[in-house]
Amino acid sequence: MIDIHSHVLWGIDDGAKDIEISSEMLKKAQSDGITDMCVTPHYIYGEVENTASVVSNELAKLRKLSSSLGVKLNLYPGNEIFLSPEIPDLLKAREVMTLNGGRYVLVELPMTMVPGYADDILFEIALMGYTPVLAHPERNREIGEKPVLLEKWKEQGLIFQINSGSITGLFGKNIQRIGLDFIHMGYVGVIASDCHTNRGRSPNLSRARNIINDKFGTEVSELLFEQNSRNILSSKEITNIPKTKSKTIFSFLKVKEAILDYVRA
Fold this sequence. Notes:
Blueprint: E1 2-6, H1 19-31, E2 36-39, E3 42-44, E4 48-49, H2 52-69, E5 74-76, E6 80-82, H3 87-92, E7 104-108, H4 118-127, E8 131-135, H5 141-145, H6 148-155, E9 159-163, H7 164-168, H8 173-184, E10 188-192, H9 206-216, H10 218-233, H11 249-264
Parallel strand pairs: 1-2, 2-5, 3-6, 6-7, 7-8, 8-9, 9-10
Antiparallel strand pairs: 3-4
Helix pairs in contact: 1-2, 9-10
């Protein structure tokens, strides 16, 4: 399996705190069946600025550590970039790292809402020839209440990455239902770990993959955990999964949204 979203670099963001935790995360990734991993430390403009040069330097250290541990993981550079108006300029200046230096850009939204400038910035990124990969939209409260936002962005070419922990219920039953329903609706392009530690949020994809195998079949599982991830790292087009019938939370949220719109009117 291939993991395009991880915080395994130690001491530079809210991921691995030290080299010991990074070591355990690398071992766990390999034992879980992960063969390739993209390191994506946070870049938050003005706050946590893990620039492309920082990522390159820290990745070199991680590769040495992995080799010393006898862990056979292919490790690639990247950033998880918090959405801000500065992203286009940062990309132009090559201050931030795209996924494996290619066309795909991992972008994170705030957890509670979608900023008013989101459409403009995401569109500008696309105009520059990049493809935004939206990290864990299932955990954004506004998107959870208005999943139609994903339909619009999907039509514009955005890709959505769901966390494996969301599928397994790590973040609660509600997030799990939303994540599974986004897959039902054909929104999800890739599943990644977004691992931060060697314990709860560890680099584990196999549990989520077993769930996807059971609910959607091995072809969908292959796309979400391997093929699309590989294509993202190679700057190739991904394959969208088909929509399936669903009676889960999506229908409930559509009704809830209609009621809220009625109340606001």
